[in-house]
Amino acid sequence: MSLDDRKLEVLRAIVQDYVETHEPVGSKALVERHQLGVSPATVRNDMAVLEEEGYIRQPHTSAGRVPTDAGYRLFVDRLTRIKPLTPAERRAIERFMVGVVDLDDVVHRTVRLLAQLTRQVAVVQYPSLSRSSVRHLELVPISTTRLTLVMIADTGRVEQRLVEMPGPIAPDDVWELRRRVNEKLVGQKLADTPLLVQKLVDESAPERRPAMACLASVLLETLVERSEERLALAGTANLTRGGVLDFQGTLRPVLEALEEEVILLKLIGDLEPSTTRVRIGDENEIDNLRSASVVSSGYGPGATIVGGLGVLGPTRMDYPGTIATVRAVARYVGDLLAQN
Amino acid sequence: MSLDDRKLEVLRAIVQDYVETHEPVGSKALVERHQLGVSPATVRNDMAVLEEEGYIRQPHTSAGRVPTDAGYRLFVDRLTRIKPLTPAERRAIERFMVGVVDLDDVVHRTVRLLAQLTRQVAVVQYPSLSRSSVRHLELVPISTTRLTLVMIADTGRVEQRLVEMPGPIAPDDVWELRRRVNEKLVGQKLADTPLLVQKLVDESAPERRPAMACLASVLLETLVERSEERLALAGTANLTRGGVLDFQGTLRPVLEALEEEVILLKLIGDLEPSTTRVRIGDENEIDNLRSASVVSSGYGPGATIVGGLGVLGPTRMDYPGTIATVRAVARYVGDLLAQN
DNA sequence: TTTTGGCACTCCCGCAGACAGAGTGCCAGT
DNA sequence: ACTGGCACTCTGTCTGCGGGAGTGCCAAAA
């Protein structure tokens, strides 16, 4: 026997009530708060089936029911109509983002905005270098043997690294190096640069070979290895919202996970689908976050995707609202980037 | 009547035991764990005096005693011998910092190191721009009306900002602008730049005046207004260490405070004395942190100070150990900066 | 004057029992 | 297939009752 419409309706009601009250919801309260048109007893039967199928469970005998991860999943997949943002929210977004000056600025404002609107922990990834192209490379002499390499990407990101040269280097040589790397790399996708950089070394005049090799290794580190590294975080305090009830007693594991950039990037960083994605509880591969849900989305100018953003909260969260907000903010940021 | 030596010794014992056990400490337990050479009754008399003077208090009648903020203060001021770092800790510092490549790298490693050694929340301020000098300014054309301004400071900090020009600007003009700002500003303390920037505008050729004015306003913003902005944070998860017992029930206010950069900068940022400073509980002006203590120190190459760092934890913390660690790390970072 | 032992008192904490409330499962009736 | 009724179970809360730890005070000792 499968789930007929009413059973789904019961599940929806359970999820909604539980999200709102944080308390196990019983059959009687359900029929009182929703127009189900049937008696508590009937609802109880439906609940028994839903529990059988793994969508809800009882914390203990003779308590109300609570949705399981699977229950939330079903709710999100089949029972959610995307609810449009309120005008107030739209206005909040506009107001928050007016007068941005900078990529840094955009990212920081966005992450705060997300945290504030969803009242949850927000994460925003900087535009991924691997999806950017080189706009310009600059070499600034610091001393006779040291340069600062500055790379500016088309997404607005600016990365810089110190380059320790093997020996003293003359201003003219710096010039020549700068000219050559720019000539070869500007306009290229960062993902494609490793081969080009290698070529640069190979094609160098012998007397410049060591310097170029040195520069090349830093270039590779900067462009490729550290590429995904940066992100911004806000709203940690929101974790304490529902008391310590959510997150099964302690937020320690969650806070620990939030400190690991690698983990966060994994959470919001797989950008294959251009749509919003929801990961519920156990669906997160990270052990520390098995009592958390993550709603994430890619963003970027136009239809392309250059980075990810999202929010993290208890599995018991307002999915329709959160999804709508994340999606709206992602789109807004994309538009903002497109203007530059 | 003032506090004789034994009473101070009793206070020290109370602080030490309480920090270790997290439980109110009574007279009997005290004489058992420390060689005070007197009976519990005597200790009780001393405790009565200490309580009278406000250094300790009872959570309720007939419980043991707990240090007050004033008690910790006295302990820190008069009863703390600085305990040297263990060799293990020294090694940890060395190991953590080997192979740094970058200012960003230094700061991030330092903050994690601090958090790990003290098992508390760590904060590290980037070298303050207002205490740095300009090493180089670079202008990179992005489009005909847009430049990216990159400033490199002698402390290694690199700041960048987008400059929106009033009209199209030719490469030669960019060159000229770059030459002039570098000529005038390189080597100058950032604190002194506002006047110089103004002069630059005034002395410009009329046809270049608007462009220079535009650049100048961004320069001022970058160099002066946003100057203290950056810092790094780590170890938030350590807040959950002592259960939720510390921080009177909820870490919410603490987490909120940690999200406000302004607040953090105020905590670690007043660098007048070159020594380590301790702020205990109520001594913090920020309401949200009245159940927290902050141990902070300035750091910088040689005897100068370019930024602050510190840790934040419950008032019930191991002050001698924390102070020693913060001081050692600050000195180490200073040495590291001196090498560049 | 300072220290000490003794003693009565206070308060917290944990435990057991009682009780109300909420919710369920099942069954017989519609 | 739905509903009303009923017995049952489990939680959370409140109560009362020692046990224990710790204090304050006092009178005696050093």
Automatic annotation (TrEMBL), chains A, B:
Keyword Transcription: yes
GO molecular function, one term: DNA binding
Pfam family, one: HTH_DeoR
UniProt KW keywords: Repressor, Stress response, Transcription, Transcription regulation
GO biological process entries: negative regulation of DNA-templated transcription
Domain Heat-inducible transcription repressor HrcA C-terminal: 104-323
Domain called HTH deoR-type: residue spans: 17-62
Signal peptide: none
Top-level taxon of origin: Bacteria
Keyword Cytoplasm: no
Function, as annotated: Negative regulator of class I heat shock genes (grpE-dnaK-dnaJ and groELS operons). Prevents heat-shock induction of these operons.
Family to which the UniProt record says this protein belongs: Belongs to the HrcA family.
NCBIfam families registered for this protein in UniProt: hrcA (TIGR00331)
Protein name per Swiss-Prot or TrEMBL: Heat-inducible transcription repressor HrcA
Organism annotation: Actinoplanes lutulentus
